[in-house]
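Structure (tokenized):
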């Protein structure tokens, strides 16, 4: 989905894996959806997995875990930006 990676979006793509990215691409391909809905829905799923659906109090995470989650969210943000601002890519 992302045409031009930086270090963090590349890392996010590695952490997300093909299955999650292809799911976001399928969401994006539905004609009834707005541009960027695939990455945005994946971002919501990541937040649910790591915060909203966690039973009880969230424990402190080691730095590596924070980097992993933030790289996934960053990938979603970059993919959303590319989907909603295609003119920025041409400049």
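Design, position by position:
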């Amino acid at each position: 989905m992302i045409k031009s990676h930086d270090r963090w979006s590349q890392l996010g793509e590695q952490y997300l894996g093909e299955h999650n990215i292809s799911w976001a691409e399928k969401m994006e391909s539905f004609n009834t959806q707005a541009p960027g809905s695939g990455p945005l829905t994946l971002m919501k799923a990541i937040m649910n997995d790591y915060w909203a659906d966690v039973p009880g109090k969230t424990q402190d995470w080691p730095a590596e875990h924070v980097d992993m989650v933030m790289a996934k969210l960053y990938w979603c943000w970059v993919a959303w930006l590319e989907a909603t601002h295609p003119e920025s890519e041409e400049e």
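Reviewer-requested clarification: The helical segments are 7-29, 37-52, 63-84, 86-90. Residues 7-29 form the longest helix (23 residues).
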